[in-house]
Structure formats: C-alpha cells, structure tokens
Amino acid sequence: MNIKDFASKPQLVELILDDKDLVERYGEPITFHTYNIVRMSTYFDFFNARSNNEFGNLDKIMKGLILDGKGNRVLSDDEDLPIDIAAAAINKIGEILGKPQSKASTPMTGDQQK
Questions:
Q1: What is the dihedral of CA 20, 26, 27, 32, to 10 degrees?
Q2: Bridge partners, 67 (sequence order)
C-alpha cells in the first residue's frame, strides 16, 4: 500500500465534555471543536508540554486547538477557561490526537470508535 493512500486533509470534529462532574457543575455537556489531524510539530509540542508540565506552552497550544464550529479560535490571548474545563479539554484533545487514525476510521463527528 502506498503511503499517499493515508494522506488526508484535517477534518474539524466536535468534542463533547460530558464528564458527570462537569455536567453537574455547569448544567449540560460542553462542546468545542478541533482538528483530527495536526502538524507534527503541534502534535509533539502538545504531548511534550503535557508530559513535562510546561503549562505556559500548553496554554498557548491549547488556545490554537480549542476551536468553534467554523475552525476559529475560541479563546483570545487574554482569556482563560475554568481549570476543570481546561483540564477536561486537554484530556479530550489528547485522546483524539493520541489515537492512531487510518483513513477509513477517521472520526467525522467527534464520536470516538472503540
């Protein structure tokens, strides 16, 4: 199989933060969007910042990954999320970026395949 067969354009996917504690605190699930494929540099920056507790870098990267339904950044440089929402978003993005994705199994709705 040719490696070109696996190439695809990033798809904007909806992610849902529906943890029981978040829903209880905020009254409903929280949604946002991100791309299912990112540049290798963003991928490694995200995971290195996350694993090395580089919170300044992680904050910058997250602001570029938390998007609205049109692919625009949700947070400006001077805005932040409550820590429980931010932590849940970091984990959710880590789940989607950390899973191997083949062209046939790339999620289009944010619902992850098991």
A1: -80
A2: 33, 73
How many domains would you assign to the chain? 1
* Residue 93, phi then psi, degrees to nearest 5: -65, -40
- The answer to the question of residue 2 being in a domain is no
Q: What is the 3-state secondary structure (H, E, C) of the chain?
A: CCHHHHCCCCCEEEEEECCHHHHHHHCCCEEEEEECCCCHHHHHHHHHHHHCCCHHHHHHHHHHHCECCCCCECCCCCCCCCHHHHHHHHHHHHHHHHCCCCHHHCCCCCCCCC
Whether residue 63 is contained in a domain is answered as yes
Residues 82-91 have pLDDT tens digits of 999 999 998 9
pTM confidence score: 0.77
Q: Which two tokens stand for residue 2?
A: 């040719």
